[in-house]
């Protein structure tokens, strides 16, 4: 009798333990599901603008495919671009240059596929765009590579200057057209572990997953302002640097080009319009998955003449110029006007104009008022600068 009793007790305890373990796991699972449900339901929805400006076109820049270290084919990126309603994408596979990537350009399923190359150089990674298709064997020396790209009709952008392969700054900064201010790949790498519990969101709410990766990173913005003081012009680019998760990463950072007319159907003409806009800084950057940013604009008017973002305006003594800023009207945003790296005006108004009195560069940042969407200090919209030069400055520098 005794041995039976001894055996019976542990079995009973085992059963109870299993029950408790099962109940606890169930409870943890339930809390986790409730947490995800709460996160999704408490997130502000996208507010669609009633009338989208017809001529503004939107695209994503810095994308990798299987032509280098990306996981997807060009078709996969195009599919992701269509899902995100993008007009164009810019592929930038690694190479010196990457010929297969360059040859993949063209219209595909209504998306304009453009390509450049991300070069590995002596200073870090450098993206070359819009250069002639005859270019071969780009050198590793950064300045030399930038000079060749420039001579062949193109321009270069310093990729992820403060993350991954950081850029080692030199003297001839005027060789580069601009730099990346923010990139999705760096954020994904940094945040994937703390965001591990949010991975199920990739199945049913990619937007929240993507936004949860973001954090403010002011260093590239400061360097951008510094470059525009010492070697203007430099333009800022929001970069995807996507290798996988295309649909999610292509929803985040966009380049917006307010154009004067619709894109033409001929590939070469359309390509030229987009690359010319980028090369002249006539575009702004936005985190459209936070809220759609279309409708923003920043321009200047001197007399009867209009100047888009990116332009240098020369003023003779007595001449006046006026800057105009228009924010998208359907969400609350805080406009900040920056002059030579310093905030000089902050307003909640949707449309303002300002008469600048000093030379230098003026640019705009817009922050969402709803703090639950983006981390504080991370701008929703970042314009490219407008540069002013009074005639006295010329006399001074002579
Ligand atoms: Zn890179
Ligand atoms: Zn890259």
Number of helical elements: 11
CATH-defined topology of the largest domain: TIM Barrel
Which ligands are bound? zinc ion
Task: Kindly name the structural category.
Answer: alpha+beta
Determine the fraction of residues in helical runs and give it as a percent range: 25-40%
- CATH top level of the largest domain? Alpha Beta
- Show unreliable segments: 1-6
Distance between the termini: 110 Å
Name the quaternary structure: single chain
Q: Can you tell me the CATH superfamily of the largest domain?
A: Metal-dependent hydrolases
Write up what this structure looks like.
By secondary structure, this protein is an alpha+beta fold. A hairpin with a 2-residue loop joins strand 16 (333-339) and strand 17. It has 2 domains: 55-289, Metal-dependent hydrolases (TIM Barrel, Alpha-Beta Barrel); 291-398, Immunoglobulins (Immunoglobulin-like), CATH 2.60.40. The chain contains 11 helices and 21 strands. Strands 1, 2, 3, 4, 10, 11, 14, 16, 17, 19, 20 and 21 form a 12-stranded mixed β-sheet that branches. The protein binds zinc ion (ZN) (2 copies). Residues 62, 64, 118, 159, 241 line the site of one zinc ion (ZN).
């Amino acid at each position: 009798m005794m041995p039976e009793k001894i055996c019976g007790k542990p079995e009973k305890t085992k059963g109870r333990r299993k029950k408790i373990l099962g109940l606890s796991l169930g409870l943890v699972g339930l809390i986790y599901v409730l947490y995800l449900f709460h996160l999704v339901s408490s997130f502000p929805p996208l507010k669609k603008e009633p009338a989208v400006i017809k001529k503004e076109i939107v695209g994503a820049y810095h994308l990798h495919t299987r032509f280098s270290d990306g996981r997807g084919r060009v078709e996969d990126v195009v599919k992701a671009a269509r899902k995100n309603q993008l007009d164009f994408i810019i592929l930038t596979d690694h190479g010196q240059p990457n010929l297969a990537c360059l040859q993949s350009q063209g219209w595909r399923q209504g998306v304009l596929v453009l390509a450049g190359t991300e070069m590995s150089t002596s200073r870090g990674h450098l993206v070359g765009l819009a250069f002639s298709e005859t270019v071969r064997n780009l050198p590793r020396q950064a300045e030399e590579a930038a000079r060749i790209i420039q001579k062949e009709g193109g321009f270069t952008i310093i990729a992820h200057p403060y993350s991954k392969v950081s850029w080692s700054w030199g003297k001839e900064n005027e060789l580069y057209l601009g730099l990346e201010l923010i990139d999705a790949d760096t954020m994904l790498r940094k945040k994937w572990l703390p965001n591990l519990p949010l991975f199920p969101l990739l199945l049913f709410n990619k937007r929240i997953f993507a936004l949860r990766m973001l954090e403010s990173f002011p260093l590239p913005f400061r360097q951008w302002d510094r470059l525009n003081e010492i070697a203007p012009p430099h333009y800022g680019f929001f970069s995807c640097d996507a290798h996988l998760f295309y649909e999610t990463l292509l929803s985040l950072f966009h380049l917006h080009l307010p154009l004067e007319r619709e894109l033409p159907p001929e590939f070469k003409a359309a390509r030229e319009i987009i690359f010319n806009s980028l090369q002249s800084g006539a575009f702004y950057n936005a985190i459209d998955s936070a809220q759609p940013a279309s409708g923003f604009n920043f321009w200047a008017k001197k007399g009867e003449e209009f100047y888009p973002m990116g332009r240098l305006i020369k003023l003779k003594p007595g001449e006046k110029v006026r800057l105009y800023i228009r924010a998208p009207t359907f969400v609350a945003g805080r406009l900040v006007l920056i002059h030579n790296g310093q905030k000089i005006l902050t307003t909640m108004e949707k449309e303002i104009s300002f008469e600048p009195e000093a030379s230098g560069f003026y640019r705009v940042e817009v922050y969402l008022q709803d703090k639950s969407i983006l981390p504080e200090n991370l701008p929703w919209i970042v314009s490219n600068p407008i540069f002013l030069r009074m005639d006295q400055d010329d006399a001074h520098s002579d």
